[in-house]
Specification:
The protein has 192 residues and is an alpha/beta fold. The chain has 7 helices and 7 strands. The chain has one domain: Rossmann fold. The strands form 2 sheets. The protein has a 5-stranded parallel beta sheet, with helices on both faces. It is globular and about 50 Å long. This is NADPH-dependent FMN reductase. InterPro entries: Flavoprotein-like_sf, FMN_Rdtase-like_dom, NAD(P)H-dep_reductase. GO terms for molecular function: FMN binding; oxidoreductase activity.
């Protein structure tokens, strides 16, 4: 089973990247799985493009990075994305990649099962952006299996061991990832 993992952030030390990778590791380490997990990590910095406008699209066409983003989704069976929140919404880095990719294929997530995560240093844990993503991504081809918000990242995540320390949050992430595994396995068994 191939799992695409990324943070909807371009920050080099993104806490959302750490959360997404932690979630993927918890699934890959689950000894009860009968299908091995292959993890592909995506970095939005590799998909930097001019800010999307219809004028730029008419002038430039579709940048190759937009197709490469869609190709990364297509070659994986499921997606885990952790959303950074900027002023209550998506980061510009994510929104720009998404906007360009959606002009090629409006169903950006191509029917892939997804776990949506968000975290922040504050008590809401990116709840606003997670709500936006949960509401809109099904219209863009995402099959949302679960979503988890992790508040107060630095208080609930051990930087030395790269693990969630709060048992309830850890259980929520593990349950979300197991649900993703089950949904993806069922989709793969059903075939095209």
């Amino acid at each position: 089973m191939k799992l695409l993992v990324f943070a909807a952030s371009a920050h080099s030390t993104s806490i959302n990247r750490r959360l997404a990778e932690y979630a993927a590791r918890t699934l890959a380490a689950d000894a009860s799985l009968d299908v091995p997990i292959e993890i592909e990590r995506l970095d939005l910095n590799d998909y930097e493009m001019p800010l999307f406008t219809q004028d730029r699209e008419a002038q430039l066409g579709s940048p190759p990075q937009a197709q490469a983003f869609l190709d990364a989704i297509a070659r994986n069976d499921a997606v885990v994305v952790s959303f950074a929140e900027h002023n209550g919404s998506y980061t510009v880095a994510y929104k720009n990649v998404f906007d360009w990719a959606s002009r090629i294929d409006n169903k950006v997530y191509q029917g892939r099962p997804m776990v949506l995560l968000a975290t922040s240093p504050g008590g809401r844990g990116g709840a606003s952006v997670l709500g936006q993503a949960s509401a809109s991504l099904p219209y863009q081809g995402g099959e949302i299996v679960a979503s988890v918000s992790v508040p107060r990242f630095h208080a609930n995540f051990d930087a030395d061991t790269d693990t969630l320390t709060q048992p309830e949050l850890r259980a929520q992430v593990e349950a979300a990832m197991r649900a993703l595994y089950d949904a993806t396995k069922a989709r793969l068994n059903k075939g095209p």
